[in-house]
Design brief:
This protein is of the alpha/beta class. Helices cover 41% and strands 21% of the residues.
Length: 296
Amino acid sequence: MRGLEVRELECFLVLSEELHFGRTGERLYISQSRVSQLLRKLEGRIGTRLVERTSRRVRLTEFGEEFAASLRPAYDALAATVEQARTRARDGRSRMRIGFQGTIYAQVTRAITAFHDHYPDRRIDLVEIPLSDPFGAMRSGDVDAAVVMLPVDEPDLTLGMAFSEQHQYLAMSVHHPFARHTRLTAEDLARTSLIPLAEPAPGYWRRVYYPDTTPCGRPIPQEDGVHTLQEGLTRIAAGRGTMLLCGATAEYNLRPDITFAPVAGLPTSALGLIWPTDRETPHLRAFATAISDYWR
């Protein structure tokens, strides 16, 4: 109904609980006469009495009881929607959600601390995103930016900065035939099987870290794909394939059932802080600068 006042509905619902005009006014911080005025307006809109009032008591009419029962869920849902919107708006002003894949490096956490010191009214929340889907969380709005492995060639995303360029290592079971090797070449990958990332990681991105041929064109056997780093490490420990990881990730994931060896002849690995181009903010740029300061 056009012109409907939420205050009238709120007043009626409180009155249906209190059954007392004075207590209703106290709860709503309005006068008793204002309660009566709001009730009369609502009854006029609906076209029937909702409340019967005598000198001794207040009670709902049969129609009023039915109306209150049907109105309460709708009013509660409306109030919850407004509160959720307020929370999102408040958090959107004070928080940034930064995604990361697999491992968050100490330099990034130090950059976060430095950012908080410089912008005490802002907060950075870290959110792990799937290794196999580096860009999906940004496009869905689940994170504002993400630290992902490069390259990034997406027209709707901005690379704020690149950092942590490192050699790639082969992660393998301690029982793998290469386990005693201290160094491997890209051609050696033809004699093992790689665990690739599952879709939807873009092809150009997967080819850097999960190539299907060596530089000389020899095919590299492929296992079934995984979505997360921990899935891959579990497969490796069980002897069900190998993975290419950067040196820092290998160092952060040392365990007795997996070993690592550097692989010569592969592109270096690097990280980048990226965000949707149309949602860039000065604070995202400031965070990129903070990371840069810790990676000089």
